[in-house]
Write a structure and sequence with these properties.
A hairpin with a 3-residue loop joins β1 (about 125-130) and β2 (about 135-140). Helices cover about 70% and strands about 10% of the residues. It is built from eleven helices and five strands. The chain has one domain (about 5-319). It starts with a helix and ends with a helix. It is elongated. It has about 325 residues and is of the alpha+beta class. It has helices at about 5-40, 45-75, 90-125, 160-165, 170-185, 185-195, 205-225, 230-245, 265-275, 285-300, 305-319, and strands at about 125-130, 135-140, 145-150, 155-160, 255-260. A five-stranded mixed beta sheet has the order 1-2-4-3-5, sandwiched between helices. The longest helix is centred in the first third of the chain and has 38 residues, at about 5-40.
Length: about 325
């Protein structure tokens, strides 16, 4: 097989990637308002997971479909000696895919380096305090009021001395449990996956609204995990949130970290929710069944007949 054969495969795959992503992003963006409303009525953890899955669906489903459908159909049905030219539309779509996913990859790589650099600097500027059951908490010197969980696979809790001194032990324990919940949910890793999934807000504002709603529900889920349905714990965490908020907000050098109060505008709603929790609805099974179906359906196409038809569609698309 000639280099031109595989070069055409690469262009076809990139063009298909962009087309599939754009189609799925358009559908998800249109469904975003209804999805956010539905997730807000669920249990916070279930709602957050649902919104996260929907937000990354266009990018990762497009990659999956290209890998299991487009590439196999080309390799199976495209003659090695084929010399068809690539149409202008296919070249344009391939270029857009490179720009879109290339930008996301660069952004994610930068975030990884910044996260690693921030963690190293924070450890140098503070000291570790052993904690039973969770390893160590890093206490940071300085005037900035930090409370965050940084790191991807071995996340660490970083708290500024100013915050520690402003909280009594029970309140501090509630804050620690909240950050532990983010670690258990792998929220920092999810932030990396969100960076890898393109979401140009100018053309697909619904994707950004899903991301903002996920951040809010992820905080609610961490609150629920920290309080474990105990009203006393809820009061302690609510008081801790108010005390930390009064210290002011602090910027941090990592987009792959979770902070105690990422959105000050949502603080009053979080406090009200902790003090007067509502009974959430169960996640509709139809929503999860739909997401599962999107993952299983392509496997049904891995037959000679559907693959041949798909290959013909790709040829029309690239001409």
């Amino acid at each position: 097989m000639s280099p031109a054969y595989f070069g055409r495969l690469a262009l076809l795959s990139l063009a298909s990637l962009f087309a599939l992503w754009a189609l799925l992003a358009l559908v998800v963006s249109a469904l975003a308002p209804a999805a956010v409303r539905a997730a807000s009525r669920m249990k916070a953890g279930s709602g957050a997971n649902f919104l996260f899955a929907l937000r990354v669906l266009p990018a990762f489903a497009a990659v999956f479909l290209v890998a299991v459908l487009c590439i196999p159909s080309y390799l199976k049905f495209e003659p090695p000696s084929a010399t068809e030219a690539i149409g202008l539309g296919g070249l344009l779509a391939a270029g857009l895919a490179i720009a879109l996913f290339g930008t996301a990859t660069v952004r994610s790589t930068r975030a990884l380096f910044r996260s690693s650099r921030y963690t190293r600097q924070a450890k140098r500027s503070g000291h570790a305090v052993p904690r039973d059951g969770i390893g160590r908490i890093w206490i940071l010197d300085g005037s900035q009021p930090h409370v965050m969980l940084a790191g991807l696979f071995r996340p660490r809790i970083f708290v500024s001395r100013r915050v520690v001194e402003s909280l009594e032990t029970p309140h501090f324990e509630a804050v620690v449990r909240h950050e532990q919940a983010h670690g258990a949910a792998s929220d920092n890793l999810k932030k990396l996956l969100l960076l890898l999934a393109p979401a140009p807000s100018r053309f697909f504002p619904g994707l950004r609204s899903l991301e903002r709603a996920w951040v809010r529900l992820a905080e609610w889920a961490a609150d629920d995990h920290a309080t474990a349905g105990n009203s006393s714990n809820s009061v302690l965490l609510a008081e801790a949130l108010v005390r930390v908020a009064k210290l002011g907000s602090a910027s941090h050098g990592s987009s792959l970290a979770t902070t105690l109060i990422p959105d000050p505008s949502d603080l009053s709603r979080r406090v009200d929710r902790l003090l007067a929790p509502a009974v959430p609805a169960q996640a509709p099974r139809l929503l999860w069944a739909g997401l599962l179906g999107l993952g299983i359906a392509p496997l049904l196409l891995l037959q000679p007949g559907p693959l041949a038809f798909l290959h013909r569609l790709l040829e029309v698309w690239m001409d």
